[in-house]
Design brief:
Layout: E1 13-19, H1 30-46, E2 50-56, E3 60-66, H2 74-91, H3 101-105, E4 117-120, H4 124-140, H5 155-160
Antiparallel strand pairs: 1-3, 1-4, 2-3
Helix pairs in contact: 1-2
């Protein structure tokens, strides 16, 4: 069995990729958006984070969080968000994928992949690469021509903050990392 190790930096900034089970395409549905927003709000009321950036795609999401000083508990937050979402989403009429024998044995639902991918942001240049990756992702996946056209992203917030112009991303930015972050 592989040994998963995570890098925890108290008060750190992290880039995340969280994927649906079997890459099922439901996260941008109205029901999913509602329950995900509620799950995040409920969890962040207990264990706050600064949601720096986010993009919600049909089968995965990317987010950048900054944790409070002295706090490195992002794993618990994602665990709780997935649990809260799954419970309310299924109760609200959402569906899950096929449950494997292993998922049945461990009483796990087939809504999310078991794990998530995280990257500890090292410096300002790394932060910019992560931010660009989040906002360019809908274009990369062929969902829109420009990040400004995509409705489930924090891109507009960053235009207002002066990080981007509204036509940013017309050409692929040179500093957007490759597929290893999917």
């Amino acid at each position: 069995m592989p040994e998963y190790r995570r890098y925890y930096v108290p008060g750190g900034t992290y880039f995340f990729t969280v994927v649906t089970h079997g890459r099922r395409r439901f996260l941008t549905d109205e029901l999913s958006r509602k329950h995900l927003r509620e799950a995040m709000n409920e969890e962040f009321a207990i264990r706050p984070v600064e949601m720096v950036a986010i993009v919600l795609l049909p089968d995965h999401l990317h987010a950048i969080w900054t944790l409070p000083e002295g706090d490195s508990g992002y794993s618990l937050r994602w665990k709780r968000i997935k649990e809260l979402f799954t419970r309310s989403y299924l109760a609200g009429g959402g569906t899950e994928g096929a449950r494997s024998a292993s998922r049945l044995k461990h009483d796990e639902r087939a809504v999310w992949q078991r794990r998530f991918w995280e990257h500890s942001v090292r410096d300002e240049d790394d932060f910019k690469r992560c931010l660009h990756y989040v906002h360019y992702n809908p274009v990369k996946h062929g969902l829109v021509s420009l990040p400004s056209e995509y409705p489930w992203s924090s891109f507009t917030k960053w235009v207002v903050l002066g990080e981007y112009t509204s036509n940013w991303g017309a050409a692929e930015p040179a500093d957007v990392p490759g597929a290893e972050w999917e």
